[in-house]
Batch of 3 targets.
Target 1
Amino acid sequence: MKKTVAVRLCIVIVVSMLISAGLSLYLQIKSAREVMNSNAELRINQVKEILEKNDAEVEKLNEDLREDYFIRAKAAAYIAQNQPGVVGDLEETRKIAALLQVDELHFFDTEGRIFAGTEPKYFNYTFESGEQMQFFLPMLDDYDLQLCQDVTPNTAESKMMQYIAVWREDHQGIVQIGMEPVRLLEAMEKNELSHIFNLMTTEEGISIFAVDLGTGKVVGTTEQWMMGKSAEDIGLDLSDSRMMNGRQSSEIIMNGERNYCVTEAMKNIMIGVSGTHDKLYRNIPANMGVVVFSLCFLAIVVIFLILRMLDKVIIQGIYRIIDGTKRIAAGDLDFRVNIDDSPEFAMLSGNLNHMVESLLETTGKLSLVFENVDIPVAVYEYNQDMKRVLATSKIGEILMMPEEELRRVLSDRNRFCEKIQEICAQPDVLEKDVYLLGPFEGQMHYVKIKSYQEDGKTLGIVQDMTEEITEKRTLERERDVDVLTALLTRRAFFRKMDALLEEPEQLKTAMLLMTDLDNLKYVNDHWGHEYGDRMLKTVARLLLNCPGPEKLAGRLSGDEFVLVIYGAQSQQELEDCLEKLNNSIQGTELAMPDGEHVNVSLSGGYVFYPEYSGTSAELVRMADEAMYVVKKSTKGNFARYQR
């Protein structure tokens, strides 16, 4: 036993150590990732703030420059209008350009052709000469229009320029100035991602990068080897829709190393911060070493102390108690345990002995009570340490077991449990905890079995319910079944129909048909009620034999019948069933004593479920309304209810 306890104790402690170590590893990894997420958030926000700030600066500078350029262009237009002589003089034109501090000055005629300016090589260029020049075409149709073009390569030399054009006040030409946007380009260069990332510093193992979502290329990074690489080259899958939903974290392989990466997609770029596992988890191995060493040391100390206490205080006494309980469990209920090595063992011995005595006394008392009271009830009891089962004397009579079989079953707890399970395998579908026995001599017996478990003990109560249930079933049958037609009575039909309506998955598509026997009064008046009853039985048989997946048929009053067909897949399936029923009715007739043959005729109305829903009474009312229409017009037909 000591060895077993030691082995199990070691297993428990080792498992606990593994769980603790695993939990510690998980928490450290989680903590490292949370730190990485926080740092990544700071870095990403830093890049976003720089971009937003630079965008604002570029926008402000662009607005200021545009205002300044329009003023210079209008000044040149004023000079050209008031001093027309300088327009054709190249030197004077260049002096004006220098005075206005513009790089190029061009004069266009009203057709949009350069005829003068500081650059003779551009003479005769028009607004049709290239995509850059076409930007100013709308001015030819609107004298009030003045345009400032964004920085664009010019048509002649593909040189980065910014052009501004205005009409002269006399509308005799257009004046255009050209500026090399040095300040604007410098400001825009500051906003380039490559420039921003060149200014950023990171720790070794940490990389910051930006990917253009349009091209899928790295357009800025703190690691030069990444520049110009595709997203796939650095381990990112841009086809994954989750990557585009705000801030995401994932494991990627970057440059042959596993990285933990945090990304955030913005308008047209994705900013990411990645850290290698070596960087992210560098402290975990040392921390885990300390944790494992501490757990091992603690486990060794705990095992040593527990085993020492077990051996000295408990194990010897337990062995002696085990020997005693083995005899009791084997069925020797006359044996008594006497161990007084310690107060606890003495108390345990006394409790064991008292338990055995109580079992014997209780069984005897219960048997005496049940034998003197005319109640078909028996009680059994056992616990997991007992080999035999204690039971009152009537249990054999209730379970219909011969005396020899009862003795054999009660002597072996496992055999008794198998017998109870065998009985419980045949439950009665209408009564809770009631099971079927038999048949014995042609009659089924009903037994109610309830058991209770507590602290390893099982107490069972067995009751013979045969007489009570048989009487109950007889009364229910007489109450629910019409004596003449064997159909459900009005009350039974509505009760069962209401129960079906609470389970629409069982009803599926259903039809409720309300019918009335057309010529019953005629038959009763001419040949008597005996033949009228025959006609009623014939109608009941036709309704019961109607094809369909599931049926419920009832007689609501003298000549009123109701039929429910349910569990169908479609209304057409039910229409087919109704047509077959109608054909059966049309071909049915009864022979009267005088030789006359009377046709069976039913008028009816029907309603579909779930096309129409409600209580059973409401559905019957709908079908009754449809039947009323038939009765008032042409009898012997079925009509569908339409609201």
Target 2
Amino acid sequence: MLSNSLFPILLCLMACSDDLPTVEVTADDTVISQSCRVVIPAGVVIEDAGGDGVIQIGASDIEIEFAEGSVLRGSSPGARPDEYRGYGIRLNGHEHVSICGARISGYWCGLWAAHADGLTLDGLDASDNRRAYLKSTPVAEDGSDWLRPHENDNNEWLTNYAAAIYVEDSDNVTVRNCKIRHGQNALCIDRVNDSRIYDNDFSFNSGWGLAMWRCCRNVISRNACDFCIRGYSHGVYNRGQDSAGILMFEQNEENVLAENSATHGGDCFFGHAGKEALGEGGHHPLEWYKGRGNKDNLLINNDLSYSSAHGIEMTFSFGSRLIGNRLVDNAICGVWAGYSQKTLIADNEFIGNGAMGYGLERGGVNIEHGSNNRIVNNRFRDNKCGVHLWWDPDEGLLKLPWAKANGAESTKNIIAGNEFVGDRIAMHFRGKSDVTLGWNEIREVEKEIETEPDVEVIRKPSYRIKPAPAPYEAYGNKRPVGARKHLRGRENIIMTEWGPWDHESPLVRLVRDAGDSVTYDLHKMPGGLRVSCTGENVVGSMATPRGEKSVPEYTIRATKPGAHPFVVSVETRGFQKEITGTLISTTWDATFFRWSKEVDPRDDLEGWRKLASGNEAVSATAKQLTFKYAWGGPSEQKLSEELTTAKLGGDYFGVIARTKLPLPAGKWEFITRSDDGVRVTVDGKPVIENWTWHGPTRDVGVLELPKDKTVEIVVEHFEIDGYAVLELAVSRGE
């Protein structure tokens, strides 16, 4: 039976050669209760007005096939991806449903299935569904872009971040031959067990390619989850912001991940025990936490390279087997396995890891507070450090029920049968711990071993371990490992405001913002390129740098001081883009200073301002107020040698900045992003005032000028502790 709860909008047109009725879908709230072939007329947009799915599956044991060229589209082509809403297909409580060939785009979630044992999804294309607008730019990171995967028992992943496909509380699911690009999260599975996910391409997304929550005994093989990343600018910063090619959170057990390519991710693979397993909240008896976390998972013969952070992060885990994986040029380290126990790391290739590591966390394998781990028969080459094991007084984590139940010593770890060639340090051991060293081949390294007095190094030169082969079953026919050789290297991670560039579409990308000038890269322009710039007191120019970078650049510059709106139009064959902005050509005089709790700016504003005239205050000039301190302070902004040597740290500092800016008559918007307090005055009158202790916050103030005028702008900012940022933008108001 084919029905609709409101309108008879499904029309059975004819019986197909395979005896499936052909059905035309043209409106919301369509219920499908028997096998059919779905046809959607070209150009039709169907919004999910009620948030319950445009197509609703109403029966078990049915097959739904989408006709070629039919697209279930939920938003108009010009809509912003962060404004997509609703669900394309909703399935709840029906088993053994097969959906084949669907094209779904423009929704918060393309397909949401729950309690759907035996579900088969074959050949779906769920590209271009909801994704966030990213505030991080090639110039600087924005901390508000971080994801938080730590909670999902109430579908927080779907509610907060969306997904192209979301499957929950289902067993024996098959997902194969699907393609999801240009979204945020591709496939999320929540309490999905005994299932097969293979031959899919979940690449070029801004969050997670495949995300797993409390999933067991699944086979995930021969999928491409490359370029699932945010928070990266090559050579500028590498954060990742908890994006990942493959994410595994909260007590996943006995899964096999084989022959997948998950390169160029925030992490390539990100596994974490989860909040409940750690006892953050402590709702179980202490004995319950024994052995809790991701357990007995096999990662074998995957390519997990070129991440902005880690190739594999598998923390607070038990019995992980990491075998035969390729881990090359990960920015921080190849494997980060803090608090892991009984991990086997064998027959992997670690090359060139750690180039952008933070402190001592860098290189091939890094394990903090780990025990009974075996690192054997691996090949290490040109890493900042081959293997780094340590114990430290990690007071916060050591107090958690997980640590009390499982222990957190760095002990009984074995390193044997490995090859170290050209690493800066082959092995590094720290803190109260012990480690057993068997035979290892070490050649052309700068330093073989660095150790501390508290470390007991047990040498057994004859000790060689060759682990037994790890048999596994891999489904699928595709070979994604090595399929994108032409994109190897982190320099090929190029971010846009909507996510990673796919290296196929035309791209106009902001690469430099100096306040009085901005520069854009023009990638993959197919021919007949025309670029023009309009606006008073601005000029545009094209250049093609020589050398490795042959991408055309277009720069807009201000010709005189002031605020100058501009419009850049880029046209080429089959592509058109218009960019608007405002150049602010001015010089800020900024004074940075420390303050103490005794002179809190929220209670004693005048006393705090007097500190800017004190002997310890340091002045500098800046072309724009764009201070992305993060967890640092003013001395890391590279504004002047005097400010750098003043060593103004990341807590309890202030800045007062002034400039005189010519503004034409009309409405002007002042936009700040601050952590913590901020105040903006123009000619002594407040425009923005958020003089509080707060996280990164956007504030907007409006100034109306009846005539052209040079105004004096004063920006005051204080930071208490933690993360810090101060940014000011000025633009023509509507």
Target 3
Amino acid sequence: MAIYTLPDGTELDLPDGSTGLDIAAAIGPGLARAALAVEVDDTQYDLDRVVPAGKVNIITAASDAGREMIRHSTAHVLAQAVTDLYPGAEYTIGPAVEDGFYYDFDVDTPFSDDDLARIEARMREIVREDQRFERAEMSVPEGLDLFADQPYKREIIEAVDESEGAVGGGISVYRNYVDGDTEGEPSQRFVDLCRGPHVPSTSRLGHFKLMRTAGAYWRGDASRQQLQRIYGTAWESKQALGDHLHRLEEARKRDHRKLGVELDLFSFPEVIGSGLSVWHPKGGLVRRIMEEYSRREHEQAGYEFVVSPHLAKSDLFETSGHLGWYRESMYPAMELEGAEYYMKPMNCPFHVLIYKSRTRSYRELPLRLFEFGTVYRYEMSGVVHGLTRVRGLTQDDSHIFCTREQIVPELESLLGFVLRMLRAFGLEDFEATLSTRPEKYVGEPEDWDAATEALAQALQTQGIEYVVDEGGGAFYAPKIDVHVKDAIGRKWQLSTLQVDFQLPQRFELSYAGADNHEHRPYMIHRALFGSIERFFGILLEHYAGALPVWLAPVQAEVVPVADRHLDYAHEVAGRLGAEGFRAEVNDHPETVGAKLRTARLQKVPYAVIVGDADVEAGTVGLKTRLGEEERDVPLGDFVARLATDVQERS
């Protein structure tokens, strides 16, 4: 008998040789119908495979693992449809990705939109045919023979490590079968190289849509063959697919690149270069407001402000390790006066030098240094994206130097500070990732373990849900990445906290302890916004351009009904300006309706309308960007309302 332990601790005794479907059926017939696969001790199996005893979890469609399986299985259906419709097409890889999947093909002619419609129609036929996925395991030579006409599959197979293969140095494939075509053996429709698992049959799929095509190089290498990639999305239900497509449509409306042009905030002139922005007056104003608020909060939290240059000699980055570990993401060196200089990719080495500039005492710790420091990353042009992936970015960068005893309380306080700051900008839905030691790292394992435990303790104290990304840390430190969900449910990675034992060691930092001996400080890296550029882009999309009153570049647009009201309109704007608010008068020769439409399109929080009655009574009419209207509002009352909006950051 085999003992299977369920997530609630219940044990099932089943005969040896039981399959995943047997386990699901033993739990209940409903679960058996809903099951896609089974996971035992963190290894996934197809439902029809015999599984070993252990901790078991039944994978269903609405789970993260189930969605990934649906997407990967749908990618196989995509490859089958393409090879059916385009004889001679060579197929490569087709993984599940976030919210969807893709598959790369080598075909004579790039795919068109009409091709996508044709391929999707064939995929739906395959789904209706209820083709079952069947796993087969074979040796490498057998695999090479099976894929004799598929050079990309052969290349993958040839790279299989004999010691790590699926079955004693072998491979696994999945065939699609349909019963009832002819008498005798079922008819094979498609075969693909894959580790699996897959859904039981194509009938468990169907809620998908092909989205677009793109070019892609084999293995991501620009010197290799260019392929045609088809992207798609797949979900567990019609409702889930519809919700996703709605989010995509909302995302298109909220695209910060589009809003940046419409609201005259920033631009990317080609003459400057890819991934480098200029900020227009309105965008620069919002950025200044964000930075000033951040500076005030940091001052109150005990940070000291520093400034560092934009470039430095190569020696600095050799010592810090950046040239050894990060060179491919740095701008090329420039020769100056016989020395190599690099644009800085990070601010931390400069802050280390500030710490090292004189002897330090334990009485100075924790020492919190802060800078709005512009850094430069040589991102590939294909990944540059508006403000959210740029080559020149300004980090709200902080480095805290502390004793070992101060690490946990400092991290707890620091994480609380991060969350308060993000909430001030209207972001509330948080979760986190704790990334641990990667395969390539510097330092001692026990130091990594201590740092990782300190980060986990800080997360638990703040009550943030988190997942562990095993091996996802930077080469020099474990880290916390704080993620936030925006108004349409998308997840963005924002703040990062890292405990670093390596830079203090590489730069031989020390402090005089209470025992009059030298000790090595610990260092915490922290970028709160991540970068000003990226955070600004995220906020624009979160608010669909309608920034809260305290951040809006123009808080009130004064609209005179006729030219005779212009003097009073300027009087109103002057009063608002004297009270510290940002107001403009629209004195263009347009109708009131046109002026109100302009204010709405520019996302101005308040259109302030003034006419004859307002001039006499000292009042204003109001129309918010949400369409709410009021008349005969005393000007003093509106001033007080704006003050409340700003104070409450509404």
